[in-house]
């Protein structure tokens, strides 16, 4: 009986059918109500799936258009094929996946939150990343409000392979944490890898007008 009831219920929200029919007016009224509810539920599910698929298509179409405009611009400006290929590869491997995710700048409601709530959100987003450094781990436990303000100033960025982040003599602008991949610090022909979970350019926090002594790739 339980399987029969389940079978009958499924036929009310799908195109399926079975040989059980209402035998009296109350049963028929119940069947009509269930059928209407099934239509509403089924329509809602189909609508949600259709909306999700259309959103994905819209994202893909927007990127394809941007990519086409980029390639056309390179052709018109006679940008070398080698450089154009590097830019396109970077866009395909880094920018395109990013467009499928919701970026912080796209969440307009975050900017409308009270400062206290927004600070808590930013702390939640970044504290695990920067607390690998003992200073920020101590700040979080001792002066949480300061840690919140620091997290509000953090930004994420991506760097393509073989890109140079900075060169010797360049003015330092920020401290960096590596979340994915690795960097290579080169100074006096000595090479030092910087791996995921590590940080660099720490002196910029307490030294004014500090310049880089090596290059980071």
TrEMBL record:
Coiled coil: none
One BP annotation, GO: regulation of membrane potential
Record keywords, A-Z: Membrane, Transmembrane, Transmembrane helix
Transmembrane parts of this sequence: 29-53
Annotated GO CC locations: plasma membrane
Keyword field contains Membrane: yes
GO MF annotation: an example: voltage-gated potassium channel activity
Protein name from the UniProt record: Cyclic nucleotide-binding domain-containing protein
């Amino acid at each position: 009986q339980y399987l029969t009831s389940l079978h009958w219920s499924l036929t009310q929200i799908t195109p399926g059918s079975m040989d059980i029919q209402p035998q009296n007016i109350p049963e028929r009224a119940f069947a009509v109500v269930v059928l209407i509810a099934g239509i509403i539920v089924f329509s809602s599910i189909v609508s949600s799936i259709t909306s999700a698929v259309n959103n994905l298509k819209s994202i893909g179409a927007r990127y394809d258009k941007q990519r086409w405009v980029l390639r056309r611009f390179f052709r018109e400006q006679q940008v070398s094929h080698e450089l154009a290929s590097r830019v396109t590869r970077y866009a395909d491997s880094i920018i395109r996946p990013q467009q499928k995710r919701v970026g912080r700048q796209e969440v307009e409601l975050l900017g409308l939150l009270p400062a206290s709530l927004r600070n808590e959100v930013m702390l939640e987003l970044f504290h695990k990343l920067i607390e690998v450094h003992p200073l920020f781990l101590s700040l979080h436990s001792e002066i949480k409000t300061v840690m919140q303000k620091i997290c509000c100033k953090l930004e994420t960025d991506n760097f393509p392979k073989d890109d140079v982040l900075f060169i010797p003599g360049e003015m330092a602008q920020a401290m960096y944490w590596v979340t994915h991949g690795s960097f290579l610090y080169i100074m006096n022909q000595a090479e030092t890898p910087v791996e995921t979970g590590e940080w660099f350019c720490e002196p910029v926090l307490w030294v004014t007008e500090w310049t880089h002594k090596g290059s980071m790739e």
